[in-house]
Amino acid sequence: MTAAVGDRRAAVVNLIAAARSIYDRRETCVADLATSTGLSRAGVELGFQSLEIDATEAQVQKLLDSVPLADRVHVILAANVFVAPLRAIVLARAAAPTVTVRPSRRDPWLARALVAEAKDPSISITPDLDVGEILSGEVHVYGHDETVAAVRARVRCGVLVRAHGAGMGVAFVSRAAECERAAHDLAADVVAFDQRGCLSPRAAFVEGGALRAREFAHALHRQLASWGKRVPRGLLSPDERRDATRWRDAVAFSSELLDAADHAVAFSAETATPWLPPAGRHVLVVAAPTLEHVTRWLAPIAAFVVAVGSDDPGRARGIFPDHARLDFLGRMQRPPLDGPVDRRASHSVRPQICPG
């Protein structure tokens, strides 16, 4: 067992070193990634700051402790966040001596580059992997819930599926926060990857009354405009443009909408959970007169909250789901490489049951 642990640790450290090498020459691939992801060139450069290249020994150990062992892991990747393949492949290799990776067809670049750079014979790229032909081991699938459901419908009985499906981030701004500073930090989390990842904040709860929440909404509107000058938003897909238009139209009837060409901020003082914003730098700011108000508002969507950012994480602790990652605003998109981003265990693991 000791030798096995040493092999797993060495493989993880090797993958991190491979990522660091890719990061050091990132300027050679910015243009290609801008094309494949739809991000602006500045958006790609910002995204690279979230590549996990500096894991400590303690974080690596925590990651190793977080993954159940398997004989073989098959990884199916999504294209939402271009740096995400590193964590997915590291987790798979920490779990198993044999790993196959099916990259996103739309954005396979980092997965292929990592496997080539790591030169680990235990990891191979399988672009045409058919999950229906997998006989044993585990499938780690990343993507929309529809993708997860399709994989679970096709795998054979006895194959374990670990799913990392739809999720989002939220923010909590305490009474003590300075609005402009907190808005600047939250905007950084929103701008990264044009808000497409499961760590991206979609809603911000502002402790206090309606006037304070409105003040924060206007500060966030200004900060997103400032960020947009430095890091322009990239291209939205037709579906994303449609969802953005529908959301803007919907919230304009019940909320104050601060609209711009490349972002929008809505302010709501309502108790009911409004329509959550789509990707593309859209944020809903909610007044939170009490902490109980936040709990009630979150109840219908708590299972989808993967990350929480706050100016005061200690005060935020206990308000939000235990499975959610909690960090300071401005750091939501850079979690330590210490295990899965998605900690929703009840959501993520399900074996295919054999009939009879």
Structure description:
The structure is a single chain. The chain has helices at residues 2-24, 30-37, 41-48, 57-66, 84-95, 109-118, 145-154, 179-191, 210-230, 238-254, 291-298, 313-316, 345-348, and strands spanning 73-76, 99-102, 123-125, 138-142, 160-164, 168-173, 201-207, 256-259, 264-268, 282-288, 305-310, 325-328, 349-351. The chain is of the alpha/beta class and 356 residues long. It folds into 2 domains: 2-165, Aldehyde Dehydrogenase, Chain A, domain 1; 168-328, Aldehyde Dehydrogenase, Chain A, domain 2 (3-Layer(aba) Sandwich), CATH 3.40.309. The strands form 2 sheets. It has a 7-stranded mixed sheet with strand order 8-9-10-7-6-11-12, sandwiched between helices. Helix 1 (2-24) crosses helix 6 (109-118) and helix 8 (179-191) packs across helix 9. The protein is globular. The two termini are 35 Å apart.
- CA radius of gyration is 20 Å
Give the % helix.
40-55%
Strand order of the largest sheet: 8-9-10-7-6-11-12
Average per-residue pLDDT, rounded, comes to 91
Which CATH architecture of the largest domain is right?
Answer: 3-Layer(aba) Sandwich
Q: Could you say which overall geometry the principal axes of the C-alpha atoms support?
A: globular
Q: Kindly state the number of beta strands.
A: 13
Primary descriptors:
7-stranded mixed sheet; alpha/beta; 2 domains; 13 helices; 356 residues; Aldehyde Dehydrogenase, Chain A, domain 2
In short:
This protein has helices at 2-24, 30-37, 41-48, 57-66, 84-95, 109-118, 145-154, 179-191, 210-230, 238-254, 291-298, 313-316, 345-348, and strands spanning 73-76, 99-102, 123-125, 138-142, 160-164, 168-173, 201-207, 256-259, 264-268, 282-288, 305-310, 325-328, 349-351. With 356 residues, the chain is α/β, with parallel strands linked by helices.
